[in-house]
Amino acid sequence: MPELSISHRTRSTPFTDRVTAAGVKAYTVYNHMLLPTVFRSLTEDYHHLKSAVQLWDVSCERQVEITGPDAARLAQLMTPRDLSKQRIGQCLYTPTCDIRGHVLNDPVTIKIAEDRYWVSIADSDIILFARGLAAGMGLDVQIVEPDIYPLAVQGPKAEDLMARVFGDTIRETKFFGTQTHWFGGLEHLIARSGYSGQGGFEIYTNGAAACPALWDTLMEAGRDLDVHAGCPNLIERVEAGLLSYGNDITARHTLHETGLARFCKTISPDCIAAPRLNQMPEPERQLRYLSLDGAPMKPITRPVPLHCEGQPAGQISTAIWSPDYGTNIAIGMVSAEITSATDKIVTADDRVTTILNGPIVTARSQAA
After folding, report:
1. 199-254 pLDDT, tens per residue?
2. Cα–Cα distance for residue pair 133/60, rounded to 1 Å
3. Residue 335, by phi and psi: left (phi above 0), alpha (psi -120 to 50) or beta?
C-alpha cells in the first residue's frame, strides 16, 4: 500500500511521541489530525480490548467550543435533539443537520455551563457550519477550537485503572455523565463514554503540556492490568453497532435514513432542520446491520453493492469478520422495501446477506 504523506497541515497530537514509542504501525487522518489505526493486528487488538484495558489517542476528536449569551440557542439550532433539559456536565449524542435535514456530523455535545458548550465532533469541519449559522443569524457567541486533547481509556478494566489515578469517586460517574479531576496542576473533564461497547472513559485533557505525563501515569498504573496502547477497533465497533461518520453516514443521508431520529424523540422546533424533518416522507432507504456468509472478509475500501432478485438493493459501507460471532458483519444502506429476512440479498460475489434486527450483539441476544 502507498504510504501516507504527512506535513504540518496534518497535525500530530501531544500523545504522538508516546504512540510512536508504543509501536503504532499506521495512521489515518481525522479532522486534519493524526489518528493511530493499528498497533498489532486488528484481531489481536480486538481480543485485547475485550479482555483488558487500552489507551487511545483520540485527540482528533476536536471540540467546537461555543460561549456567550446565545450559546444555548446556537447549540440547539445545530441539532434536532431537544437540549432544553440538558444538565450542566451532561453529554448528549446530538446528530447535526443542515436545513435539508441531511446529517453533517454526529457529535456529542457537552454542556459545560449555561453559556458554554463543547461539541465533540466526528470527522467534518462543523466549526465552519457553526460560525456560518452564528454570523447569518447575528448571534452573540464566540466559537473556537479549545486546547483540549481527548484520551480514551477503554475496556473492561478501564474503571479500575481510572480509579487508581483519579480516585474511587470516578466509579460514580454515570454513562454520559462527567466529573472534573485534577492532574498535573490542571483540572480535566472526564466523561464515562467512548467509541467502543466495552465501557470506559474519555479524558478531555486540558492543554498539551499535561498529555505526556498523563499517558505515562496511566501506563505505569495499569501494568498489572495489561494496559496497552490501542485505537478504535473496526470489528468491535461494528459488533456494537457504532456508526462512523464519513463511512456509514455522510451528508448525502437524511436523519431518518440513518436511523438517528431515534435520539430525537421530540424534534426541537428551534433546530434549523425542523421544518424539513417534520415534512419528510418515509425514507426509501434505511441504514441496516447485516451478516454475510462465506469466507472471512477483510476491511473494505469502497462500498459493496447489494442486489435482490437482480435489482439494486443498496450498498454496504463497512464489513469485517467477527471472530466471536463466527460470521461476517456489516453496516449498509438498504432499500426500505426489503424488510424480511426471506428476501434474498446478495453481493456481486454471491455472498448471501441477511438483515439483522440491530447490531449483532443485540440480534444474537434476542435470538437466544
Report:
1. 999 999 999 999 999 999 999 999 999 999 999 999 999 999 999 999 999 999 99
2. 23
3. beta
Q: Kindly state the DSSP code that residue 262 receives in the 8-state scheme.
A: G
3-class secondary structure, 120: strand
Q: Where are the domains of the chain?
A: 16-62+147-238, 63-144
Please report which confidence band the pLDDT of residue 313 belongs to, taking 50, 70 and 90 as the band edges. Answer: very high
Residue 161's pLDDT band (boundaries 50, 70, 90)?
very high
Going by their DSSP bridges, the two strands 327-335 and 311-322 should be labelled as: antiparallel
* Confidence at 56, pLDDT banded by 50, 70, 90: very high
Half-sphere exposure of 214 (CA within 13 A, CB side): 31
CA distance 78 to 69: 16
Q: In whole angstroms, what is the distance from residue 340 CA to residue 330 CA?
A: 17
Fold of 63-144: Alpha-Beta Plaits (3.30.70)
259/272 Cα distance (integer angstroms): 19
pLDDT tier at 60, thresholds 50, 70, 90: very high
List the grid coordinates of 203: 479524558
Query: Average pLDDT for residues 108-135, to the nearest whole number?
Result: 98
In this structure, which topology does domain 16-62+147-238 adopt according to CATH?
A: Gyrase A; domain 2 (3.30.1360)
In sign, the C-alpha dihedral spanning 152, 158, 159, 161 is negative
Helix (H) or strand (E) holding 314: strand 311-322
Q: Which letter, b or e, does each residue of 78-117 get, where b requires 16 or more Cβ atoms within 10 Å of its Cβ?
A: bbbbbbeebeebbbbebbbbeeebbbbbbbbbbbbeeebb
Alpha carbon 228 to its chain centroid, in Å, reads 21
Cα–Cα distance measured from residue 130 to residue 66, given in angstroms and rounded to the nearest whole number: 9
- In DSSP notation, 8-46 reads TTSB--TTHHHHHHHT--EEEEETTEEEEEESS-HHHHH
For the entire predicted model, the pTM comes to: 0.96
